[in-house]
Design brief:
heterodimer, A: four-stranded antiparallel beta sheet, globular
């Protein structure tokens, strides 16, 4: 069966510091990979998605970036965090075929102080 | 108009009651529909997945899709305190199958 790992679970970082969140998927190949952000009381905001190694689509212009160095690895980064980057970050995957559902990791709660 | 509209609640019902959660969507080209359950400080968990009009049942949960009205529902029978969570509906984006469109979620509390 497929599993998705996301770490760390919680993170407190000062403004201006770098960020690296990592996500890996097991039990599947060629998945589509996603980074979402969920602000308190708000819906899911799609940040980035990737349909293959090195292929990144950005949905929202910001100081975050994403990379996919391996088929089942997705990384969310920032060179300098802003207070507004605080939130709940979710990695997700779906099969690379039509009509497959999305599966989420357990998220990283980021607090920028 | 948002592509998917969902009443944010909060919704509180007594234990054992039938819960009805609803979403409407605007694009008749949407093809498949999902319900997710999200506990506090956890990622959303896929609960139900359907791609046609009608009902799909899984235990105490029933997902209903009415494509003519662009209306989707999730019914929870014999609700339990463990059902207390935020429920999100989702559908595919016909202009990009890589992306799903989510409702904002309904916060549900089952009162023992």
């Amino acid at each position: 069966s497929q599993t998705i790992h996301q770490w760390p679970a919680t993170l407190v970082q000062p403004v201006g510091s770098p960020l690296s969140l990592e996500c890996t998927v097991e039990g599947t190949s060629n998945p589509n990979l996603y980074w979402y952000r969920q602000a308190a009381g708000r819906g899911l905001q799609l940040l980035f998605y990737s349909v293959g190694i090195g292929q990144i689509s950005s949905e929202v212009p910001q100081n975050l970036s994403a990379s996919r160095p391996q088929d089942r690895q997705f990384i969310l980064s920032s060179k300098k965090l802003l207070l507004s980057d605080s939130g709940f970050y979710l990695c997700a995957w779906k099969g690379g075929y039509d009509n497959s559902p999305l599966h989420f990791g357990n998220g990283t709660r980021l607090t920028v102080t | 108009q948002k592509e998917v509209e969902q009443d944010p609640g909060p919704l509180s019902v007594p234990e054992g009651a039938i819960v009805s959660l609803n979403c409407t969507y605007s694009n008749s080209a949407f093809q498949y529909f999902m319900w997710y359950r999200q506990y506090s400080r956890k990622g959303p968990e896929l609960l139900m997945y359907t791609y046609s009009s009608g009902n799909k049942e899984d235990g105490r949960f029933t997902a209903q899709v009415d494509k003519s009205s662009k209306y989707i529902s999730l019914f929870i029978r014999d609700s339990q305190p463990s059902d207390s969570a935020t429920y999100l509906c989702a559908t595919n984006n016909p202009f990009g199958n890589e992306k799903l469109t989510f409702g904002t979620g309904t916060r549900l509390t089952i009162i023992p």
